[in-house]
Structure formats: C-alpha cells, structure tokens
Amino acid sequence: MSVQSTLDIKELNERIRLESSFVDIINMEMGKVIVGQKHLVESLLVGLLADGHILLEGVPGLAKTLAINTLANTINVKFNRIQFTPDLLPADLIGTLMYSPKSEQFNVKKGPIFSNFILADEINRAPAKVQSALLEVMQERQVTIGDESFKIDEPFLVLATQNPIEQEGTYPLPEAQIDRFMLKVKIDYPKLEEERLIMRENLAMQFPKVDKVINPSDILKARRVVREVYMDEKIEKYILDIVFATRFPAQYNLPRFEPMISYGASPRATINLGLASKAYAFIKRRGYVIPEDVRAICHDVLRHRIGLTYEAEAENITSEDIITDILNTIEVP
User: N or C, which end of the chain is more exposed by having fewer CB within 10 Å?
Assistant: First the structure.
C-alpha cells in the first residue's frame, strides 16, 4: 500500500470517527430503556445505517416492539406498529381510495405503511398477498394507490417479527421474499441479572423516557458516509469466498455439506454482507472493514439465505452450523 493510500485511509478513519459520534449517544439513550439485548440494538443500527430491513425471530416478551419504538423515539421519526392477522388486507396496510359524495370523486386514504419505522408484528400470520404488499414497499420505497404512486419518507426501516414456537395458522414467507430482508436476527432470553433488573423496573413502574438526540437528515447523511468506509480487496475476496462456499461447498474443503444444501446464498447476500460489514465498522467508529466485522454480521446476513435438504434436517444440521463451519474453514485475510 502506498504512503498516499495510507494517509487517505487515516484521514477517512478520523472523519468517520467524528461522523459516527452519534452512535454512542443512541446506544446510551436506548440503554435507559432496553436492558441487555446488545446484539439486537447493534443489529437495528446496522440495518438503519445500511438501509436494509430486519426479520426478527424470538419468543414473545423479548422487547422487540420496545426496541424499535425506542430507536424511533431517539431519532425523531414516525413509528407505526402493524399487527399482522389472517384477515388483514393489503388496503389495511397501504391505504385505499375512498369515495366522497360531497366532492363526487375518490380521495386517497393513506395506510399505516406511510411512516419511517414500521414494526410488522408476526408477519407470518398474514396471507401471501399482504406479505407481498409489504415487501413491494420495502423494495421499491413507493406505494401505488389507484393510478397514483407515492414515495415513502426516508429513512425507512421495516422490522418484521415472527414467533418460532407457534406455527399453527401461519403463512411462512417464501424464500424469494425472505431474501429481501438484509438481516435475520435471532434473539434469546436475557441473562439472570438482566432479567432481575427488568423485573425490578417493571414492579417499581420505573420507565425512563428517551430524548430525541438525532434528526432523520443525520441518518441519511450517515448512510452516505457508511458507503465510503474502506474495504480492501482481500476483505472483498473473503466475503465472496464465504458466499460461494454456501453454493459450492466441495470446492472449499466442505464436501460433507454438499448433500445438505439445496441452494446457496444469492448475489443479494454478497451485496448485503459487504454493506452490513461497512455499517458494523461504522458503529465501531472505524473507517475501514476488518475480518472481524464480516464474521460478526455473517450469521445474521446468511442464516435465512441457505436452503437445507431433508438430509440436513434429519441430522439436525442448521444453517447456523453450516455458516460457523464455513467461517472456521475459509482462510481469514
């Protein structure tokens, strides 16, 4: 690497260290309300800064709704929670045309999707046409009602949740649609001391309020800066090797996974793994990506993008197991 390149990276690193100062403030504000769940908070910030959406899986009562509501309150944006149910219609989500007898014309009534942060609670409880309506908004960032198209305000973040322990009366997301989520985050129970604190706060009715510490324009600016985070060619190759190992495991000394993977990660996984790694480096106040950034975010980016065969299920092999073995096998730059 030339002296000039080294100086450029040093300058970029210093600039990003200053630009990312608000991350610590957001973490501090969220820490007032959210006990533990560090990985969940980090994932929300990565999704927000990388302009990607998040699918969250966890049992009830793990502060999924509270976390995104708190994040929305710290950023001074509009937040809507939509409870997905079997009788939900696309119009309940995006809006519809209402006829006005007074003016003798149809007027647009916008739905709850017109917000900055959306919590799609239990997304797998609604039928496919409702899921498709949400996923279209996520991808296109616009809504068509009648003959008119309306842009969604930025920043726009969808956090969809699904319950892993209850499958009756649900409509699982198809593989092609689930691929549109940048991250699939699994959250677990809090530690004993964390749950003790949660219990005490709730019994004492102590619910701290967070302050609005940042504006939407600051988030949009940060998103542009995230893309400037330096990624070396060796890190790019590392990301490509990880993704290609999910498609052609035998070529990467993982022949035992050949009969267990029905399909590997898509090109969208490569893009999202690169972008999420940059966002993770940004929240760690660094202007360059290191292999640990890729490894930290890899499971969340890939776990919903690897198809498993019946043989894998019979042997209780999960996509997490495959990703872990790939990370342990691929040479780290």
Answer: N
